[in-house]
Design brief:
Blueprint: E1 4-12, E2 23-30, H1 36-39, H2 42-50, E3 57-61, E4 64-69, E5 79-84, E6 87-96, E7 106-110, E8 115-122, H3 125-142, H4 147-161, H5 165-179, H6 185-202
Parallel strand pairs: 1-8
Antiparallel strand pairs: 1-5, 2-4, 2-6, 3-4, 6-7
Length: 209
């Protein structure tokens, strides 16, 4: 069987290459959820041959089987080339540097004797906070958690993400308009989450900069 090459690039959300990553923990899984290192041990052997000073090894972290790459010669990592059996894979990685860690996930198809490139984007903490705030409150409503505790957590997320007040208000107004009159339980949770956040903004319980 002829292997294909997966060329992985690590980038910031502005598309610049990450230039200070001293270690990465790569996850490559089949679309059925099987770690590629479990499916084919040759993948790790090929990496060890290609990157002998990066000390490739398999370890488990945050519930995932990962390929740990940690250069011993001071090299910073922003590109990794992995030889893989043909197939469809989900790929992401943990980036060890001065900021946020987990990149986004990408779906990629690797063909025989071909090369394919993917960009793994490392979002900033602010971006992660903006994307997380609303679904966090919706999930809390589904779990019927204590409103006071949810509001404290939501306040911290909004402030850490540094979401502009006008941006949050516009987003909540649009969501509220879309959800008015809903009756299904799932949609009602979204409406309740929207009302909670709107009330927090109106009562100035979020410190906007």
């Amino acid at each position: 069987m002829s292997y294909g090459k997966l060329n992985i690039w690590l980038k910031h959300e502005n598309c610049n290459l990450i230039d200070d990553c001293w270690r990465t923990d790569l996850v490559i899984k089949t679309c059925s959820g099987v770690p590629v290192v479990n499916m084919d041990p040759k993948v790790l052997r090929k990496l060890k041959k290609k990157y002998p000073k990066w000390n490739p090894m398999v370890h488990d972290y945050m519930g995932e089987r990962r390929i740990k790459l940690e250069p011993t010669d001071g090299t910073k990592i922003n590109n990794v080339e992995v030889e893989l059996p043909p197939g469809c894979y989900v790929v992401w990685t943990r980036v060890c540097y001065k900021g946020n860690e987990e990149t986004n996930k990408v779906l990629v198809t690797v063909n025989c004797a071909r090369e394919v490139c993917v960009n793994l984007i490392l979002n900033s903490t602010k971006t992660c906070g903006k994307e997380f705030l609303y679904p966090f409150v919706v999930r809390a409503k589904k779990l019927d958690l204590n409103d006071e505790h949810v509001e404290i957590a939501a306040k911290l997320i909004a402030e850490i993400a540094d979401i502009p007040k006008e941006e949050l208000v516009a987003d909540l107004d649009l969501r509220f308009k879309d959800l008015e009159g809903v009756k299904k339980a799932r949609e009602v949770r979204h409406l309740d989450a929207t009302k909670m956040l709107k009330k927090m903004v109106e009562e100035e319980r979020i410190d906007f900069k």
